Structure to design on (247 residues):
């Protein structure tokens, strides 16, 4: 953050129409909380975002609390949608000092990733960009021929069913622009309004009855074969995080 930014996590406030931009990108990062600094961190980030990332003069920044997964108890911060050309803009000294004063003493910023949305694989009926509550699924693709193609085909087959059934949920898929070994290659983002969504068994994040709809299109047992098995065989470091926006 303190070097260059004008782009940063993911997930619902409203959707901005991106004029003159042919891709949607967020720069994502994790704020690893220092012990006992929750209130100080959230207050500091909110002040910083309101002053420097309010969505008027620069892309808007967001903060989420991570409820589940390996980063649970920490925070996710993002700014976007943004563009890579924005990264050529140097931050004013007061911007950097404000971050150092209000954020850095309370958390370390780690795992910065530039995530670009894959519009072909994404299903986004309301054209939303960010979500107040989100389920985030991350996947790293195994090295070797055929792995990436298999994962893309699995994700794409789900998208086709969502489109055919006019599903009421959004499922946005992002690719890591600068993939590194052991770091996520894909992030799947499912915004939701209520945790009641997870009361039912089935395909987590997808609509109730989705497996039945999927197998109507691809055949009996196809969800296990074409999705569960494919992802088990061709990906690793799979995580599922539920994030709640801090306002």
């Amino acid at each position: 953050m303190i070097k260059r930014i004008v782009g940063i996590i993911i997930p619902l406030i409203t959707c901005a129409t991106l004029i003159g931009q042919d891709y949607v990108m967020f720069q994502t990062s994790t704020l690893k909380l220092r012990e006992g600094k929750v209130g100080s961190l959230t207050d500091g980030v909110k002040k910083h975002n309101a002053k420097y990332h309010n969505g008027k003069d620069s892309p808007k920044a967001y903060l989420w609390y991570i409820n589940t997964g390996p980063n649970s108890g920490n925070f996710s911060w993002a700014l976007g949608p943004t563009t890579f050309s924005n990264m050529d803009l140097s931050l004013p000294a007061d911007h950097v000092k404000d971050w150092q004063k209000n954020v850095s003493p309370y958390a370390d910023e780690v795992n910065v990733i530039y995530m670009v949305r894959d519009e072909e694989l994404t299903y986004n009926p309301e054209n939303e960009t960010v979500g107040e509550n989100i389920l985030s699924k991350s996947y790293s693709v195994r090295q070797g021929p055929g792995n990436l193609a298999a994962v893309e085909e699995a994700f794409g087959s789900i998208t086709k069913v969502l489109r055919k059934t006019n599903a009421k949920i959004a499922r946005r898929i992002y690719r890591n622009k600068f993939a590194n070994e052991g770091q996520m290659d894909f992030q799947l983002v499912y915004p939701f309004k209520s945790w009641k969504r997870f009361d039912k068994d089935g395909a987590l994040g997808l609509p109730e009855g989705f497996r039945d709809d999927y197998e109507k299109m691809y055949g009996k047992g196809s969800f296990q074969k074409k999705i569960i098995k494919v992802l088990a065989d061709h990906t690793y470091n799979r995580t599922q995080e539920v994030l709640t926006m801090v306002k």
